[in-house]
Amino acid sequence: MIRQAAAPARWSLDEAMAALQALADPAARETMARFAIVTERALGVSVPKQRALAKRIGRDHRLAAELWATGVHEARTLAALIDEPSRVTRAQMRRWVRDLDSWDVCDGCCMDLFDKTPYAIECALAWAGRREEYVKRAGFVLMAALAAHDKAADDGVFLAFLLLIRREAGDERNFVKKAVNWALRQIGKRNFRLRQAAIDTAIGIRADGSRSGRWIAADALRELQSASVERRQRARGR
């Protein structure tokens, strides 16, 4: 008789939170604060330690929802690491993005989870026009994540993103303008055609004349017009 291997035991919320508590480091919490991370409900667990814990836990949609609901900073970044993209719904993404209160949780959700869902493109387009700072940031971080990770996406997707990047480049809020800049640079590094389109967009943003736009354009052009980016694209043949 062939015995079936037992399924690995699922972690409970109490076990996951106890593991996070065991990794807490006050010095790490102070470092987080210096990087403008909201630490009111933070434990002080470094990202490498969170990623190692996520590997031990494995993918678990139910536990991810429970971790998110605690409101604890590292519990939420851990939730994004262990959730199952195929089970994430639009409604969940809308709930989570409304809860965002720190740039690092925003970026973790977008780059570790949201960009792997079927709703990533539509959410990027929708969120980029929102007023709330972290919702808007999420829209542009999603654009950057898709440019880096979605190898199958058509150039037309990113050309549409560039229109929003130019439209929103006048937003002076630090966490927004940095995400706009990130998306612009990442799109431009995708291939030759998008690089030229991103350069043209940056030149247009600079001409529009806003203070944030001038900074976004200067930083993006410095990278996209560099010899190193051109060499990498030629080496890839795209």
Notes on the structure:
The protein is built from 14 helices and no strands. The protein has helices spanning 13-23, 26-34, 47-57, 61-70, 73-82, 90-99, 103-112, 120-127, 133-149, 155-168, 174-188, 192-208, 211-224, 227-236. The model has no long low-confidence stretch (mean pLDDT 95). It is mainly alpha-helical and 238 residues long. It has two domains: 11-83, no CATH class; 101-238.
Largest sheet: none
CA radius of gyration: 20 Å
Instruction: Tell me the series of helices and strands, N- to C-terminal.
Output: HHHHHHHHHHHHHH
Principal-axis shape equals: globular
- Residue share in helix: 55-70%
What's the total helix number? 14
Give the strand content: under 5%
Poorly predicted ranges (pLDDT <50, ≥5 residues)?
none
Indicate the mean pLDDT.
Answer: 95
Concise overview:
The chain is mostly helical. Helix content is 70%, strand content 0%.
Explain the layout of strands and helices.
Layout: H1 13-23, H2 26-34, H3 47-57, H4 61-70, H5 73-82, H6 90-99, H7 103-112, H8 120-127, H9 133-149, H10 155-168, H11 174-188, H12 192-208, H13 211-224, H14 227-236
Helix pairs in contact: 1-3, 3-5, 4-5, 5-7, 7-9, 8-9, 9-11, 10-11, 10-12, 11-12, 11-13, 12-13
